[in-house]
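Task 17 of the worksheet. Students: predict the tertiary structure of the chain below and write it out as structure tokens. Keep your answer in the requested format; marks are given for formatting as well as content.
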Amino acid sequence: MHTYLVYPAADGWRVERQDEARTARFKSFADAERRARWLSAHASVKGHDSEILLLDAEGGLVGSWHAELYAPAAPPAQGVAA
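Model answer:
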């Protein structure tokens, strides 16, 4: 399984493959997420299972991508006005 992590850093956003020392830096979350989704799709084309974990600044899970399906880490809060 290829697991890609997307998380904020002091100088932007980082993307890394779990258990690897290399990271890539991006100025925006959108750019980091786009790159992680490309890497995940590339791994899938090569026959590997992959996922993307979106983390907050403390390392907590915010959501994840499995193939083209996004899943939030927790359901939305109740009673939120539209």
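Marker's comment: The mean pLDDT is 87. The first helix runs from residue 29 to 45.
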